Structures are given as C-alpha cells and as structure tokens.
C-alpha cells in the first residue's frame, strides 16, 4: 500500500454552520497520513465560513455566487491537489478509516483486474430527525461489479437487471476516485443543482467505467430538508438529466419513459392522484412490462420507507 499518495477530501458547504464543523472534524480524524482538506463554500448567508476558518489546516474557497452542488463539486475538482479525491458532505460525518478503506479497494481492484476509470462508493447510514435509520448499501458489493453502458440504462430508466450485480446507491457524498478519473469523464456539470452525481455516473458508464463499493458502514448522513431539496427541484433536475442524455435515451426508445417516470414520482409525493393516474396510464400504454417491473421492484420498499420517515418519534 502506497501511504504516500495525497488524498484530497473535498467538502461542499452551503448554510451549514450547525454541521460543517462535524464534517471537518471527521475529515481531520482520518487515519490516512497524507490528506488535503478542501472546503468550497457556495455563497452561504450564515456564518459557515467563520466556522471553517476556525479550523487549522483547512483550505477554504468561497463562491461569490451560489452555483449549487454541481458547480461546487467542479470547483473542488479544479482545485484538488491530491492523486485521489473523496467527497464528504457538509451534514455528514465519516468513520476514521473511510478514505484508507476506499483507497485499498480502488488500488486492489486495479491490481486485480487492470481496469481504469473506477469509482468507489462507501456504504453508510442515513439518520432521520425522528430517529429512523436507513442502511445505505452502495453499488458494487457483489463479486461482479457493475460497469459499462448497462449502468447508464439503470440510472436513466431502470433498464438493467443483471442478477450478478448489486446496484445500490451511487451518491457523490460516498464517492472516491482518482482525480484523473473525474477529469477524464468530464467532472461535474455546473448546470446541475441536483442529481449532479447521477449525471457523472451516466457519463462514467458510457465511458466504460467501473462501479465498486465498500460494504463497511463508513459514513453517517444526517437527513436535512431545504428549498434546494424540494420535490420541485428534484423533478426539474431529473428532467434536465433526461434532456441532456436524450440522444442515448432515444436510441433505446426510452426518452418518454425517462421524462414521465420522474413526473409520476412527483405526483405521488404531492398526492396529486389525478395526474398520477393519467401519467401512469400513459407509461403503461407505451411500456407495460417495464412499468410493471419497475413498480414491483421499487414500490413496496419505497412505501415502507416513506411510512418510517413520517412516523412520529417515540
């Protein structure tokens, strides 16, 4: 193991004065000997910058305009000095061994397979305000790791069901890769204020990249709410993702599916059952088998998850 590799821990920060200190402390507690901690404050209106400035050994870059996660992650990538880049979110805290374990997973996979363009995701858990805890088992936990264009199909329209693969999640807050890997794929698109991680994953897939995971629970995500995380913002970003990749979707005859399924989910969240029914009927008429499979695979778990999220604290 080459313990001399510099690893940049990139933390995006926006109005996180109550939690950014915890995220930085978990970055400083990493057991890897060569770490750069880089924080990009995305034009916060609270005293987040003052909190960050109170920590020694942390490099702070301040945006003069709010760009959203895509723009903030682009700035992190543009300024990272490390051979590897790991993303921490401002409301998460990571276990001390997180970047070491992810480094070992990446380099071990490289040596074993000779593969390049590898993205490694740490598993973790999400804690909700009512005390409900959700295990976040990440992608690539089976012996055969997801790779190539099939992953793009899975992300864009739930189109791949390889039984040898474990799909799981692929959020940026759990992601580590070689800095050069991010750059080869094109980094993060600053036009995205949500789902910038999915856009990166689609482009990595289409470039032939590999998705590997760590089964260890290496971070805790504290669920928060905000205007930037509204149902409307999510819908807007998911439609933006479909528009960006519409040529690929049309080549698979799934452009309609990829633009209507996010609307279906939005109408469900907003309890607009008339539009939900009409949208569902349109999807079923065009793609009956795909819709039924999608609903059966994700619906029951989704409804149970929502019920636990809404449960009153004991």
Averaged pLDDT, please? 94
Number of helices: 12
The helix/strand series, from N terminus to C terminus, equals: EHEHEHEEHEEHEHHEHHHHH
CATH architectural category of the largest domain: Alpha-Beta Complex
Radius of gyration: 19 Å
Number of strands: 9
CATH topology of the largest domain: Spore Coat Polysaccharide Biosynthesis Protein SpsA, Chain A
Class of the largest domain, according to the CATH hierarchy?
Alpha Beta
What does this structure look like?
The chain is of the alpha/beta class. It has twelve helices and nine strands. The chain has two domains: 7-222, Spore Coat Polysaccharide Biosynthesis Protein SpsA, Chain A, CATH 3.90.550.10; 253-310, no CATH class. It has helices at 20-28, 48-53, 68-79, 98-113, 149-157, 179-185, 196-206, 231-244, 246-251, 255-269, 273-286, 288-310, and strands spanning 7-13, 35-41, 58-62, 84-89, 92-94, 118-127, 133-136, 175-178, 210-222. Strands 1, 2, 3, 4, 5, 6, 7, 8 and 9 form a nine-stranded mixed sheet that branches. Helix 2 (48-53) links the parallel strand 2 and strand 3 (58-62). Helix 11 (273-286) runs antiparallel to helix 12. The longest helix is centred in the C-terminal third of the chain and has 23 residues, at 288-310.
List the topology elements.
Blueprint: E1 7-13, H1 20-28, E2 35-41, H2 48-53, E3 58-62, H3 68-79, E4 84-89, E5 92-94, H4 98-113, E6 118-127, E7 133-136, H5 149-157, E8 175-178, H6 179-185, H7 196-206, E9 210-222, H8 231-244, H9 246-251, H10 255-269, H11 273-286, H12 288-310
Parallel strand pairs: 1-2, 1-4, 2-3, 6-9
Antiparallel strand pairs: 4-8, 5-9, 6-7, 6-8
Helix pairs in contact: 5-7, 8-10, 10-11, 11-12
């Amino acid at each position: 193991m080459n313990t001399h590799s510099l690893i940049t821990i990139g933390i995006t920060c926006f109005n996180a004065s109550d939690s950014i200190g915890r995220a930085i402390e978990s970055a400083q507690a990493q057991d890897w000997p060569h770490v750069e901690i880089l924080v990009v404050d995305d034009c916060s209106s609270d005293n987040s910058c003052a909190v960050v400035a109170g920590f020694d050994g942390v490099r702070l870059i301040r945006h003069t305009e709010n760009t959203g996660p895509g723009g903030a992650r682009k700035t992190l990538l543009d300024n990272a000095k490390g051979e590897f880049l790991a993303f921490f979110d401002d409301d998460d805290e990571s276990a001390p061994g997180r970047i070491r374990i992810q480094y070992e997973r990446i380099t071990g996979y490289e040596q074993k397979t000779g593969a390049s363009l590898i993205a490694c995701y740490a598993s973790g858990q999400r804690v909700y305000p009512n005390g409900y805890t959700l295990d976040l088992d990440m992608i690539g936990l089976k012996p055969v790791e997801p790779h190539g264009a099939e992953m793009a199909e899975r992300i864009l329209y739930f189109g791949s069901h390889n039984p040898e693969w474990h799909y799981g999640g692929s959020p940026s807050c759990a992601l580590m890769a070689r800095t050069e890997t991010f750059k080869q794929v094109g980094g993060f698109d600053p036009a995205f204020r949500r789902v910038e991680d999915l856009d990166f994953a689609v482009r990595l897939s289409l470039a032939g990249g590999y998705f590997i995971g760590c089964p260890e629970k290496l971070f805790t995500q504290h669920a928060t709410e905000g205007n930037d995380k509204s149902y409307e913002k999510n819908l807007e970003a998911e439609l933006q993702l479909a528009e960006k990749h519409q040529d690929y979707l049309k080549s698979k005859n799934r452009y309609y599916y990829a633009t209507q399924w996010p609307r279906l989910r939005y109408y469900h969240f907003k309890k607009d059952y008339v539009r939900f029914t009409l949208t569902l009927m349109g999807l079923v008429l065009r793609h009956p088998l795909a819709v039924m499979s999608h609903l059966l695979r994700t619906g029951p778990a989704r409804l149970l998850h929502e019920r636990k999220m809404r449960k009153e604290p004991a």
